[in-house]
TrEMBL record:
<dbReference type="InterPro" id="IPR010752">
    <property type="entry name" value="DUF1329"/>
</dbReference>
<feature type="signal peptide">
    <location>
        <begin position="1"/>
        <end position="25"/>
    </location>
</feature>
<keyword id="KW-0732">Signal</keyword>
<dbReference type="Pfam" id="PF07044">
    <property type="entry name" value="DUF1329"/>
</dbReference>
<protein>
    <submittedName>
        <fullName>DUF1329 domain-containing protein</fullName>
    </submittedName>
</protein>
Length: 460
């Protein structure tokens, strides 16, 4: 059993309940005026940290940098923007204690579980990409007008950017994590590797088509209401599950609507509505090793947990993760015993929000506690630590994000979910050996593709 203690020095300490009030105050004109100046347009600290190890935000690039060759919207594998960068140093089992204040408990657990092989190569931190102007304008509008409603399960405001670029309480940070500016259409065939403790691999494969309503061009700036997103997922591997498809519709407010989902069963050739889809239901293609709400580290209805905001800290997290997504990376080399090969990883020192969820009394979930570490520059969760019902560290997961030129924002790439007790892990969102990576913002998906009738037609 892995059991470690985390010391988190925070720049701000906040411990507020999601039930604090049904509507939270907007920020003042003076606070909102900091956006685009002291703060980036989505609320990150623009300045460097004290010793310059986190640089000042430059935002010098919007979309593809001049030195990069890239064809948009066709699924080209990500191109490394910083190909000449080399690691500044590595964190290992031998020296991790000197960096402990900038690590999560799960990262420490990885060093203890795999002392001979787990390493974190640390690179120069870079903050060179920015969001489109319209997203910055709407973020400021949200800062002045958006409010939480329904106990934090929804909020007023405008579609497109995060709702609370200057957050004051936990459910605002959670809302930002669930509603960052990201691709409005996404189509990918992804491989999933269930890597056992002895290194053997059971393969899964899915085809995914996602339509994100709130960042669709025609929806930007409209009131935050209705549906958040549509998703369809089809299983290609393992062979026993091949031909199963699930379609879902996600609301923006889980107090007023729930996630609806339908599944096509190739055995019966029938479509049935799923009574519950999400929470700790098994993720398809992962041999039951991942839960549905672990995709992007946390998604869906958050109401089973009591959320507290632990503040902000400096932490080593995956960032600018281009190399791992190269089409030249081979699974046989990447997917080593215990964890993925560290040589393909890129960690940077960045500022993160620390959000903790504890399971409420009387509610059921596999995880008794989950701690999310959210990059201040893009509001996406990069690292997640998961605990069992006894409060013991169980799993450590991280996502390799990169700035995608197709959408002028950050894309969640390949992720790894480690069972620290079993010594096994899941490699998720693997595209390295696929002909295409993510096809983003092609605009080729419509709501009528996510109905039960469309699902039935896909299974024929």
């Amino acid at each position: 059993m892995i059991k470690t203690r985390i010391w988190v020095p925070v720049m701000t300490t906040i411990a507020l309940s999601m039930t604090a009030s049904s509507a939270m105050a907007k920020v003042s004109e003076a606070e909102a005026a900091k956006l685009g100046k002291e703060l980036t347009c989505v609320g990150a600290e623009a300045a460097a940290n004290a010793d310059g190890s986190i640089p000042a935000f430059s935002g010098k690039w919007l979309g593809k940098p001049p030195h990069v060759e890239y064809t948009p919207h066709v699924g080209q594998h990500p191109v490394d923007v910083y190909p000449e960068d080399k690691p500044l140093f590595e964190i290992t089992a031998a020296n991790y204690e000197q960096y402990a204040d900038k690590l999560s408990e799960g990262q420490v657990g990885m060093f203890k579980r795999f002392p001979d092989t787990f390493r974190m190569p640390v690179y120069q931190s870079r903050r060179d990409f920015r969001y489109p102007d319209i997203i910055c304008e709407l973020a400021k509008k949200n800062a002045l007008e958006a409010e939480l409603i329904d106990g934090g399960l929804g909020y007023t405001g405008y579609k497109g950017p995060v709702g609370f670029p200057i957050p004051k309480e936990p459910m605002e940070v959670l809302a930002n994590m669930n509603f960052p500016y990201r691709a409005f259409t996404e189509h990918v065939v992804r491989d999933i590797a269930d890597v056992s403790s002895n290194g053997s691999i059971t393969w899964g494969r899915q085809v995914n088509k996602n339509l994100n309503v709130v960042t669709s061009p025609g929806e930007l700036g409209k009131p935050m209401e209705g549906l958040m997103a549509y998703s369809i997922s089809g299983t290609l591997l393992p062979e026993r599950d091949r031909g199963s498809f699930t379609a879902s519709q996600e609301p923006v407010n889980f107090a007023r609507a729930k996630r609806l989902a339908w599944q096509y069963d190739p055995g019966t050739r029938r479509v049935r509505q799923l009574p519950t889809y999400g929470f700790d239901s098994p993720m398809g293609g992962t041999s039951g090793k991942m839960t549905i709400d672990q995709d992007r580290l946390m998604n869906g209805d958050p109401s089973r947990y009591e959320w507290t905001l632990q503040g902000k800290k400096e932490m080593y997290i995956p960032a600018n993760a281009y190399r791992i997504h190269s089409k030249d990376v081979k699974y046989a080399d990447l997917l080593t015993k215990g964890h993925a090969k560290p040589d393909y990883m890129r960690y940077e020192l960045r500022r993160v929000w620390v959000l903790e969820g504890k399971l409420k009394e009387g509610f059921r979930h596999a995880f008794g506690k989950r701690v999310l570490f959210i990059d201040e520059d893009n509001w996406q969760a990069s690292v997640g630590d998961y605990y069992d019902q006894r409060g013991q560290l169980w799993q450590h997961a991280f996502i390799n994000h990169f700035y995608a030129f197709d959408l002028n924002a950050w894309q969640a790439g390949t992720a790894f979910y480690h069972d620290l007790n079993a010594g096994a892990y899941v490699g998720f969102n693997l595209i390295q050996e696929r002909d295409n990576a993510w096809v983003l913002n092609a605009g080729d998906l419509t709501p009528d593709m996510y109905t039960p009738a469309a699902l039935r037609a896909m299974g024929q």
